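can u do me a favor
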């Protein structure tokens, strides 16, 4: 994932490679603002341009060839870091933060879209491969 606008605390944590030691987020509001700027910077252009707020525009604004492929990143600096930082921003169980809830909803929607559960395209390919393998055996 690009480091542009990535929260400084997250960058330091990743560079230290001390993954078992979680940092203390002293100012959750500032961290949340930084996280939102980073999340917006990670988005494809069509989501960046469609926003008027801190978070990207809704997925429903996608047209034609618009995808979320820019978010398909794995590894220590991949999409998991977005989730880790989102967890750090989380308010205590006794508090509520509408910005954090909106961010969680947006990330969840993106993950749901990336897994493409409704279309099952990956499974279809696997089923086709299994059928071909069965034909070869007989």
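np, heres the sequence
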């Amino acid at each position: 994932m690009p480091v542009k606008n990535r929260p400084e605390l997250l960058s330091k944590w990743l560079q230290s490679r001390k993954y078992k030691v979680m940092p203390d987020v002293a100012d959750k509001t500032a961290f949340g603002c930084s996280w939102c700027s980073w999340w917006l910077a990670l988005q494809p252009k069509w989501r960046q341009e469609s926003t008027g707020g801190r978070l990207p525009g809704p997925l429903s604004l996608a047209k034609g060839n618009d995808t979320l492929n820019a978010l398909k990143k794995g590894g220590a600096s991949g999409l998991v870091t977005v989730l880790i930082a989102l967890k750090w921003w989380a308010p205590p169980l006794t508090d509520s933060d509408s910005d954090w809830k909106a961010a969680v909803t947006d990330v969840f929607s993106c993950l749901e879209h990336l897994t493409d559960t409704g279309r099952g395209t990956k499974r279809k390919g696997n089923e086709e491969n299994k059928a071909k393998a069965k034909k070869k055996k007989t």
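The helical segments are 8-16, 28-42, 45-49, 79-89, 98-115, 121-137. hope that helps!!
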